[in-house]
Amino acid sequence: MALIFEVSEYQERLRKVKESMLRKGIQVLIVSDPANMNYLTGYDGWSFYVHQGLVIALDYDEPIWWGRGMDANGAKLTTWLKHDNIRPYADDYVQNVFKHPMSFVADILREMGWEKRHIGVEKDNYWFTGQCLDVLREELPQAKFHNATSLVNWIRTIKSPAEIKYIKEAAKVCEHVMKTAIDSIEVGRLESEAAANVYHAMIKGTDEFTGDHPAIFPIMPSNERTSAAHLGWKPDRKYAPGDIVLLELCGVRFRYHCPLSRTVYIGDPPKELKEIADVVIDGIAKTLDFIKPGVTAEEIEAKWREAISGSRVVKPSRLGYAFGLNYVPDWGEHTVSLRPGDKTIMKPGMTIHLMPGIWLDEFGFECSEPFLVTEKGCETFLNFPRKIFTK
Amino acid sequence: MALIFEVSEYQERLRKVKESMLRKGIQVLIVSDPANMNYLTGYDGWSFYVHQGLVIALDYDEPIWWGRGMDANGAKLTTWLKHDNIRPYADDYVQNVFKHPMSFVADILREMGWEKRHIGVEKDNYWFTGQCLDVLREELPQAKFHNATSLVNWIRTIKSPAEIKYIKEAAKVCEHVMKTAIDSIEVGRLESEAAANVYHAMIKGTDEFTGDHPAIFPIMPSNERTSAAHLGWKPDRKYAPGDIVLLELCGVRFRYHCPLSRTVYIGDPPKELKEIADVVIDGIAKTLDFIKPGVTAEEIEAKWREAISGSRVVKPSRLGYAFGLNYVPDWGEHTVSLRPGDKTIMKPGMTIHLMPGIWLDEFGFECSEPFLVTEKGCETFLNFPRKIFTK
Fold first, then answer.
1. CB-based contact, B328 to chain A, within 8 Å
2. What are the coiled-coil residue ranges (chains A, B) (predicted)?
3. Which residue in A332, A277, A306, A293 sits closest to A157, CA to CA?
């Protein structure tokens, strides 16, 4: 067992989850999201490509881990759970049209006498498929199913001091990663070589803090590919004069992320790009000045819109989102979004990526700031210059 | 538009998918798996963390791409589709409890007059959640839904010559990656530094072939962590004499993978490890000798069991699986599994990872071979020594 938090911290998280279950009328919660599994038990492995999860019941002390047999030793090594609460299934449940792991979970629920209960499932989570839902409904016809998507994620939204410490360490790694990326963009160099350097920096980390694998790959498109939000580098292409390159990168520390975006131009940036950069950078400063406990997500977005009003910049997509602990495919937490209609009230300990990415039809511009809501306002995790980096 | 295959190859794949739909009584197929999206249209971006997909109808020529607004330019740049068939949704569909992207898909289906049809969904795919299923059922009460999990994946199982070429190039990258990993394991070196070197090799590739991002992170646990199948390196730990290290790695070329596993021991390997290695390596050779078109997946597994019978080696999990084109979280195709009950007949063009990983309670051993079924037998993609590598 090699935990990165005190067992008491995991137990406190579990207590909050049970409190939320109670409020929502959920007696048993099936957790499928690997980040939620890690958050509550410490479980850490690349085994989420098969069905696995936790079962949490209001009247049962520990979560029950369930997963593939070959991963049970991984659960013993990485979680604080008693070994009795680690329940492996036989290998023929894996990707088999005749058997589904949710039948195994139903067996556990029947064995515990929980088959008629109010059961919460992470209904819109990647790791809880339509088939999971139908198998559970068929296996447990007397249960009442509740949509508990993001129930645990909302608990994750407020970070503890120990979590903030890891994100601050991830920020140090992130700074190193961003510098490495900017340094690696050179006329004549293959884009894949720059991306390789970025990965190396991300995994090795700094002399002080080792890194970790990212939940989103390095988003570093060039030129017309910067008109889209989620394209990668182009492996066989070499950088050339006049290139614009977006960098949406991160540092990671024990699965805790710190993301950051910047833009590089090879040569003298065109007037239109500079104008957009000026508006966005000014808008970020004004928005950050506004953020403090008590304001809502939509008020923050409105402040941004006010700051850029009268300019040519239009930003139809959300302005930011909560981030933190995660696995692929997203470092976002799927809770707070900075956009109209999101009435979440900012509280100390929230960590949000202010990400006003601009994607036009010909090119894009990115400059972002991850911030922590503090007692009196907010602070950014990095102090990285906000500008177009030129080479 | 920057495609890595001729448009005719994508169209041929689409034809085969429609043929399979017709056989199964499916008139409209909703594709959620990003690998299937790529396979049929070329679409390539890290945008699958929000709902996106294709709609394919028997009587409509092209697939319809649907996804988030900021990713539509990515679809225009990476697919062969007419721009009319790229259908972006507004940003407030993203992670919003009040609106779901499957309502947008239902809008498309109603607009096309397909709302009463037999509709296939990838029901047990990561990217098709329980919520997707319920929203579709509610939006389209007159439709008949079919489980089309892996329908496209089964078409992918037989690779074209152009695909095999990419996998062979990925194999060259994989060889470089494995050598880099073995070279990087040194007493006193941080595990994260070895992992960073592995990532660098995987992304940069060789002088001949650039690499790409992997669908599974480098699985390279040490010591007691080798008793589990899917643990990673331990960031802050340094290698020490007596370490056993598993390496389950890959090379990637334009999303086509070539996986490979080997085991490293620092020092003189203990007798038990050597005995297991001898049995497994002998079993691999005998199993590969047996494989040819016409034999079934379960017969291959039975041959393996015969080869290791009488030894102390027990292998309760499946012996291998189909691999190829993929995104996170898995390079496996979720079709063929080498195990009892799988009656899939081997055909030329199938690519399978023969992966007899052994995970005991104290340690593990891995040695694997990815192979291609040929006209007369099979050939491995690499010629990497099968042995315990010692340092």
1. yes
2. none
3. A332
CA distance A260 to A104: 41
Of 3.40.50.10490, 3.40.50.1000, 1.10.8.60, 3.40.350.10, which CATH number belongs to A7-156? 3.40.350.10
CATH number of B161-390: 3.90.230.10
ipTM here: 0.98
Tell me if chain B has a CB within 8 Å of the CB of A127: yes
Q: Please check whether residue B344 touches A, CB under 8 A.
A: no
Distance from CA of A31 to the nearest CA of B (A): 13
- Can you point out the beta strands (E) in chain B? 28-31, 53-57, 64-68, 86-89, 118-121, 144-147, 244-253, 256-265, 320-323, 332-337, 351-354, 358-359, 364-365, 369-373, 378-380, 388-390
A93 interfaces chain B, CB cutoff of 8 Å = no
Count Cβ atoms below 10 Å from residue B90 Cβ, excluding itself: 13
Q: Which are the contacts of B283, defined by CB distance < 8 A and separation ≥ 6? A: B304, B307, B308, B313, B356
Name B28's bridge partners: B57, B119
Q: Do A229 and B48 touch (CB under 8 A)?
A: no
Res. B1 pLDDT band, cuts 50 70 90: low
Q: Does B3 touch chain A (CB under 8 A)?
A: no
Sequence-separated (6 or more) residues with CB below 8 Å from residue B88: B66, B67, B68, B69, B71, B72
- Structure tokens of A260? 């950051």
Task: State the average pLDDT over residues B334-347.
Answer: 98
Report the residue of B126, B135, B222, B365 to disrupt the A interface, i.e. the one with the largest count of A CBs within 10 Å: B126
Q: Where are the domains of chain B?
A: 7-156, 161-390
**Which pLDDT band holds residue A2 (cuts at 50, 70, 90)?**
confident
Band (A1; pLDDT cuts 50, 70, 90): low
Report the C-alpha gap between A256 and A160 in whole angstroms.
Answer: 12
